Amino acid sequence: MPLLHLANELLCRISENLELERDINAFAQTNRRLHCLLNPYLYRYNIRQSGSSALLWAAQHGQETTAQKLLGERANDQATSDCYQTPLCVAAEKGHSGIVKLLLDKGAAQSGCYGNALYRASAGGHNQVVKLLLGADINAQAWEYGDALHAASARGHEQILKLLLDKGAAQGVWNGNAVDAASEGGHEQIVKLLLDKAADVNVKDISYSNALQAASYRGYKQIVELLLDKGVAQGGKYCNALYMASVGGHEQTVTLLFDRGADVNAQGGRYGNALQAASIVGHERIVKLLLDKGANVNAQGGQYGNALQAASAGGHEKIGGYRRNALQAASERGHGQIVKLLLDKDAHWFMYDSQRWEQSIWIARLIDLIAK
């Protein structure tokens, strides 16, 4: 008797003796009869032996019918992927609203994964999914990533942002706030919307920068102007906006900050001040602008001591516990035009020479650098 002419009970018994899920699946794909007969068994096998991984697959690929059948067989709606995401989080991230609704109707929890479902949907810009999830804790934090409002702001999803704000989402400060995220991303309309909601523009994120510093570093001049109009402070405990614009090389933003009263010699940041930051990175036009505004070329502080040392070292070399003499470093490598600018402003070149190079060698290299 041909195999496919066997009774259903015998066909099911054959399936039960297949050890691998892929073999059961291949058998079920033989024809329509076997598919209808064996698929429920295949689903149950996956639930028992593979931790309901098929439900994660269905959530990933938007296979609503498959998800419905798996849930009908009592698949675990809290099963997690290799990235520790639940089916609800996966479906929310992909924007599969039908599966999201199905899982919610079955009582699936929205939390319990890296990035809760509302966060995932907000980051992905999936309006319909966000609407389904708005009954959740709208301010729930998503591990290290912030909350849903932060996610929508960072990605520039204006309609989702409005939905969240209308539901009372708080502009939290955990790992930065929404206006900071929008400023760093260059989303001007989002920044305007948040400012209209009285966002705290001076809140710092975990890197100790604020919205103005983030926008200044990226060179988003219009956002910088918006924030300044709202009275945001240019300075900060660890850094300042002028420093960030200078290290980013954004001349128009630097000019705007000066027009709004920036202190050219304000201290802060890894390199000490704006002049040193621009010097180490090699932004010649910024260095010239800062010098024209009265930057103290010999101001001490930061990783490289002063601007000449920063320009000369180029951020590359450290010998022992001391930086080598600035002009010696410049003769080997560095930003020659910036060195010339600094020397023209009477930058001190006499520094402790930790290596005691022969004078003829380093002077020759210095002359060669300046001559270029």
Describe the structure.
The N and C termini lie far apart (93 Å). It is built from 23 helices and no strands. By secondary structure, the chain is mostly helical. Helix 10 (148-155) runs antiparallel to helix 11, helix 12 packs antiparallel against helix 13 and helix 21 crosses helix 23. It has helices at 8-16, 21-28, 32-49, 53-61, 64-72, 87-94, 97-105, 117-124, 127-133, 148-155, 158-166, 178-185, 188-196, 211-218, 221-229, 241-248, 251-259, 274-281, 284-292, 307-313, 326-332, 336-344, 359-371. The protein is elongated, with a radius of gyration of 31 Å. Helix content is 55%, strand content 0%.
Instruction: Indicate the overall shape.
Output: elongated
Number of E-type strands: 0
What is the N-to-C order of secondary-structure elements (H for helix, E for strand)?
A: HHHHHHHHHHHHHHHHHHHHHHH
Give the mean pLDDT: 79
What class, by secondary structure content?
A: mainly alpha
Measured between the Cα atoms of the first and last residue, the distance is 93 Å
- Weakly predicted, low-confidence segments: 315-333, 352-363
Which key features would you list for this structure?
372 residues; mainly alpha; 23 helices
Q: In a nutshell, what does this entry contain?
A:
By secondary structure, this protein is mainly alpha-helical.
Strand and helix layout:
Blueprint: H1 8-16, H2 21-28, H3 32-49, H4 53-61, H5 64-72, H6 87-94, H7 97-105, H8 117-124, H9 127-133, H10 148-155, H11 158-166, H12 178-185, H13 188-196, H14 211-218, H15 221-229, H16 241-248, H17 251-259, H18 274-281, H19 284-292, H20 307-313, H21 326-332, H22 336-344, H23 359-371
Helix pairs in contact: 1-3, 2-3, 4-5, 4-6, 5-7, 6-7, 6-8, 8-9, 8-10, 10-11, 10-12, 12-13, 12-14, 13-15, 14-15, 14-16, 16-17, 16-18, 18-19, 18-20, 19-22, 20-21, 20-22, 21-23
